[in-house]
Amino acid sequence: MTPAESLGACPFCGHVPQDLRDALHPTGIRWREDKGIRHYIGPKDPRDGTPCWSLDCLEHEGGCGAEMSGDGRDEVISKWNRRAPALQAAMHSCEATEVIYIGDDFYWKSGTMMSSLYAVDGRRYDWGFVRRDLRNGKAVNLRPATAHELAHYTAIRDEKHPPAAEPGDPT
Fold it and tell me: Are 51 and 26 in contact (CB under 8 A)?
């Protein structure tokens, strides 16, 4: 079995790349060792070197767009596979904060800098909280708001900052 045949799911979203010809490829960068020091050289450098490789979670296949690179084909596959089980274990071993995304318009249109993220229990959440929780090893499950949730937060936004009437509208 080759390393590509044992390719695991994306370490970030769980998608399994379908088209390895598109997902797994040389980067154009090469590396070489000189006197015990590894040097990376670009595509226009005439010196010989070993190609670096990249493995992508392809968005057009439903993946998240994550990219992992390594100093060789087998290394990048090994890194990809090594990380997936660790992520799965972390996701199942800790309680996650459920967060809904209501859209960037709320931030700009509210006039109060209303957050675009809220915990499902209604607490204000923002991207800084997401970064903090992830940095501290907590899982954060982020999803788009349902139509009902969006209507709820739209009503809150419009209550705090009613939309301006269009010119010519009777008020």
Answer: yes
**Domain locations along the chain:** 3-93, 96-160
**1: pLDDT confidence band, cut at 50, 70 and 90?**
very low
- In the three-class reduction of DSSP (H, G, I as helix; E, B as strand; rest coil), residue 139 is classed as strand
How far from 96 is each of 55, 137, 167, CA to CA, in Å?
A: 28, 10, 47
Label residue 168 left, alpha or beta by phi (over 0 means left) and psi (-120 to 50 means alpha): left
Report the C-alpha gap between 38 and 164 in whole angstroms: 61
Alpha-carbon distance of 31 to 71, in angstroms, equals: 7
Secondary structure percentages of the chain, helix, strand, coil, to 5 = 35, 25, 40
- Cβ neighbours of residue 11 under 8 Å, at least 6 residues apart? 66, 68, 80, 83, 84, 86, 87
Q: Is-above-0.85 flag for pTM?
A: no
**Exposure string for 86-124, b = 16+ CB within 10 A, e = fewer:** ebeeeeeeeeebebbbbeeebbeebeeebbbbbeeeeee
Q: Where residue 6 falls among pLDDT bands split at 50, 70, 90?
A: confident
Determine the Cα–Cα distance for residues 59 and 38; give it in Å rounded to an integer: 32
